[in-house]
Design brief:
With 110 residues, the chain is α+β, with helices and mostly antiparallel strands. The chain has a domain of 74 residues: RRM (RNA recognition motif) domain (Alpha-Beta Plaits, 2-Layer Sandwich), CATH 3.30.70.330. Helices cover 17% and strands 27% of the residues. The protein is built from 2 helices and 6 strands, in the order βαββαβββ. Strands 2-3-1-6 form a 4-stranded antiparallel β-sheet, with helices on one face. It has a two-stranded antiparallel ribbon with strand order 4-5. Strand 2 and strand 3 form a beta hairpin. The mean pLDDT is 86.
């Protein structure tokens, strides 16, 4: 199991990957930082993944930063769970292949 990759949640939306890397570098050698963003707006979703070179460094980062205040927010830091296959979501919308519609002007009454 890879305990070198951490989930970091409740981040300020303004944080950059460089700032997050600088913060976590105090715990050890950071291999990668990825802030998760909304695919449509590009805006941060308020969480990220930080990977360390060793499990010991990752454990130190959890100890140093979990439940600590950062830029006015209490951040959450823990071991990232492996990504699982998620079922395709069904939003219960209507099937647009049926056509239909209706509406429009149908004439007035006399």
């Amino acid at each position: 199991m890879n305990n070198k990759r951490l989930f970091v949640g409740n981040l300020p939306f303004s944080i950059t990957e460089d700032a997050l890397r600088d913060l976590f570098a105090k715990a050890g050698k950071v291999v990668s930082v990825k802030i998760i963003t909304d695919k449509f707006s590009g805006r941060s979703k308020g969480f990220a993944f930080v990977e360390f070179e060793t499990e010991e460094e990752a454990a130190k980062a959890i100890e140093m930063y979990n439940e600590q205040e950062f830029e006015g927010r209490k951040i959450v830091v823990n071991v990232a769970k492996p990504m699982e296959d998620r079922p395709q979501r069904d939003f219960g919308g209507r099937d647009d292949r049926r056509g239909g519609g209706g509406g429009g002007y149908r004439g007035g009454r006399n």
